[in-house]
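Hi support team,

I'm filing this because I wasn't sure whether my run with magnesium ion finished correctly. The job status page said complete, but I'd like someone to confirm that the output block is well-formed before I use it downstream. Pasting the exact inputs I used:
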Amino acid sequence: MTLPSQKAFPVSWDQFHRDARALAWRLHEAGPFEALVCVTRGGLVPAAIIARELEIRLIESVCIASYHDYAKQGELQLIKDIAPSLRANGGKGVLVVDDLVDTGKTLALVHTLLPDAHYAAIYAKPQGRPLVHTFITEVSQDTWIYFPWDMGLTFQPPIRNGAPG
Ligand SMILES: O=P(O)(O)OC[C@H]1O[C@H](OP(=O)(O)OP(=O)(O)O)[C@H](O)[C@@H]1O
Ligand SMILES: Nc1nc2[nH]cnc2c(=O)[nH]1
Ligand SMILES: [Mg+2]
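And here is everything the job wrote out:
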């Protein structure tokens, strides 16, 4: 379901893999990185692909939740912090990965923990764009991105019968 004010941007597994690999190519030029911190849960999937491409084997997570209801952001909850060894020098040489940046509130919290890390997301909306150093595709602020792990195959009525656009 998309809110009436929103455009839908559905992403297939193939597309997501291609975009994550494209991000890895860009990050390869920005690195090297000694560790990767993924922002759970959405950052787990691109983190696996990027860590494989860049051969990063030290993986940490920072656990943050905020969108408890569909498309509505609530208060940020830091469920799990980052290991002190990675925070020691402000996160220099550390790569932070998330699936997307929307308002930027989630990554703004991570910036307070790792001010000198490199920030990357596959998709970015204009408001959150200043929070990432590297991203692949920008979508408008009124677009909702649907990830492949949140979707399933369903019947599509013919366009002539009023299929949703
Ligand atoms: O830039 P923001 O407006 O803060 O939103 C971006 C965050 O929202 C989603 O996470 P969510 O809190 O829904 O949790 P999840 O990753 O566990 O799905 C997404 O994965 C980003 O982490
Ligand atoms: N799946 C998904 N989660 C989000 N969290 C914040 N914005 C979005 C979005 O566009 N799509
Ligand atoms: Mg998330």
